[in-house]
Amino acid sequence: MTAITERSRTPATLILITLVALMVGTRLHHFDPIPDASWAVFFIGGFYLRRWTAWAFPLLMALAVVVDYYVITSLGMNFWQHYCMSPAYWFLIPAYFAMWAGGTVARRFVTRNDGRALAMTAVSLLAAVIVCHLLSQGSFYWISSVVAEPTFAGWWKNYSDWFPLYLRTTAMYVGAAVVVHLVAAQIATQMQSHSGDHHKR
Known about the structure:
- The protein is mainly alpha-helical.
- It has helices at 6-27, 38-48, 53-74, 92-109, 115-143, 152-200.
- The chain has one domain.
- The protein is 75% helix and 0% strand.
- The model is unreliable at 1-8 (pLDDT under 50).
């Protein structure tokens, strides 16, 4: 693993702090007007924090569980007896890691800010959401006791009904991150250009 320099650590730390705030601020109110950004948080994390995967992913995963614990217990419910807390809940770990891996794969294709990089990011995001939804929704449908008599037809309807919502929400947050990334890259390029012109004088 390539060592993280002091220069790269600062923006990475700011990104991690931003992702933590985004997850906490949106996961607390899962279906409120501001939708849950958790899937996007892990995708963006994989994109920017891939060198920190060994501890950044577990940190964000633990944060997700802590937020869920707070939300459930604040409603006066027992965390372990809540209907979400079936064995399927722990499938969120590989599900969210699929999002993280998608961001990591997208990063490998981003060598410059061009249409190909954006296209590969979109493809990586779509693939990650497909797998994440398959693991999270599929495990809940088949393993939890919420569905009394699961069937393939019932699973597929549930999967296809919810997939557009999760894809749209995740794409919205990742799209905003792409815009910020492109603007920051443009500003950095202009600053380097001005710095070069200054040294030439």
